[in-house]
Amino acid sequence: MNSNRGVLFWLSYAIAVATIAWVVWVYPDLAERFPVHWNVHGLPDRFAPKSQLLWLAGLVFAIPLLMDILPRIDPRHKNYAYFGTSYQYIKLGITAFMAFVTVLSIQAGRSPEQVLSTRVMMLGLGLMFMILGNYLTKVRSNWFVGIKTPWTLSSDEVWRKTTRVGGWAFFLAGLIIALSGFFLSGKTLFYLIIGVVVAVSVGTFVYSYLLYRSLDKSS
Question: Does this model's pTM top 0.85?
Fold first, then answer.
């Protein structure tokens, strides 16, 4: 493990441990119930016992732990050596986003009547998509991370080309989501996000199939 990869490896756990420590620190002062869902206007419409915050904080730690186990059980584990640093960046991005959601939920729980900051949430979600998209282009064929369709898993060339296109699509989707919070709100913002996510998901799926069929015919 090179030094950069090692720093990224431990940084994910540092974020997770810091999140757990902060949750434990503020836990006694929190209300007995905290918001777990907000409507399209940013107002809380579903609440849960604050004890669930401990599970949420535990999930932040479980994510990097699970992502470090997956390569060991992947039948294509040797491919991880080619994108180890990118994999650690992806792990860091997902862990940081979950920590961000945990902190945001607690802050909202301190003042349940306040409106959730749409800009902050969209910025965090968009940044995660951009990080995933940026490093997705470097991911080699495997069973756990990347754009996995029957056709990408059957052909390294289809995987490589689909991942390259999908990576840029994820990055662009993240940029749109991050900026949308500054200009849109309510149902318009909600439908835009759903539309962007569906477009990227369906688009990469169809692209991988068409690419596979094209390569199959040419061979």
Answer: yes
